[in-house]
UniProtKB/TrEMBL annotation:
Organism placement in taxonomy: Bacteria, Bacillati, Actinomycetota, Actinomycetes, Pseudonocardiales
Official protein name in the record: Uncharacterized protein
Keywords: Membrane, Transmembrane, Transmembrane helix
Domain of life: Bacteria
Transmembrane segments: 350-369, 375-393, 400-418, 424-444
Amino acid sequence: MPADATQEEIRAAFDALGNIEHRFVDELFWTWGTPEDCGCPPQLHHKHDLAVAAHAAALEAETEQTEDHPAPLWDEAARSWAVTLSSEAFWGHLAHRVKSLGDPRLDESTVDVIRSALPGALVAPLVALTAESSEPHRLARYLPLFGGDKHTVADARSEAAEPTYLRLENLLKELRKLLDEGKARTAAERALAELPVPLDRLENLVPSKDFRRTASVTELAAVALNNIGVALADSAGAPHRLVKDVFALAKRYTTDPDTLATVERNQQGALGAGRVNAPVNAPVDVGQLWNTATGYIKRGRYSDATRVLNTIIEIALRSEDREQASRMIVQIRQLQDGGPPRRYVSAPRVFLALLHVAFGVTLLATLLTSPLLPVFLIGVPGLVGALGLATNASVGRGRLPALLVTDAVAGLVLWLVDSTGTPIPAWITVVTAVLLLVVGTVRVRTERTRA
């Protein structure tokens, strides 16, 4: 530590010393030297130290700290690590170090955790370089060399692409805002100048045929370009060449036949007849988009369905459409990950469901002479149904509030009658509770399923 270290640097150093897990991992990426009491064959430490040195040399070459060409250094680093990690003596050394350190925070499972995490850790510096590099495709080719499986490599590519995803998504929001403000020409000029670079970068790093997020954001960009072209051609004094270039870029990036047909139709209307059709925010309209997405889901084309649903989120005017599309995307991803969709959990919805059940139970408890058995027989199924309703992603936000309004009306009527001294037959109270707690939830869920 330097003599002029700041308090923050000193504190960070002590934190690092106190974190035994981090110290143990740091040993992996530092030279080991000659074996002492670990019982390792000398060549193991030598091979490990060669891997560390080659890895460091490759990183230094990439950051221009040396004049060496990085390509052979990356190949050498990958080969050296492959030799090291394939040796059981290497893992035996780690097990020995766990015992030597004698820290209760380290045990036999520590080595297993490192074994599974090490391929990702080895490429972490490469991922950071790829995210900032002007040549991401060159660096990305080194990612599979370090022993990770296809999922590890795909995750590394996605992580390296994350800044580009965010930049592109923010740009699309800014372009949409410009359109909303009536600044079609500014939107067109920015789209032509700023969209191709991140879109092409994503296609090189995370190709749309393999990465759903790339396919989705690229299609959204094509739809945005179509809308910009329509708005631009509709404005006074729009340059012919600018309109043509915007539509050409939209056709370049779309892979959806319906979107392509829409772009070509709008382009012909704008450049051929000198006018355009009304702006089209989707391949046909939102209703047609829903039909398209449903068809894709039925045929098991989940990636295509996700792309269409993302388009709905981007262009739909009704918040209900956008929310329903978001919920369906979550369910599709869960299906793709394997197994049935998990429940959609929302604290406010669960609270409303519990409030609904509490209301029904209170109704039974206050109006019946012997409420215990009815509360159990009706309240338990009612609780199950209400929670199922609250955690069903396909149920609209207004369903539970509507049930609570029904609760309030029914309860008010019964309690007003009871307050007058008029006896209320027990069967009326029981039937009312059944309708509210059991039938109400079943009916609502059935309606939503048909929709």
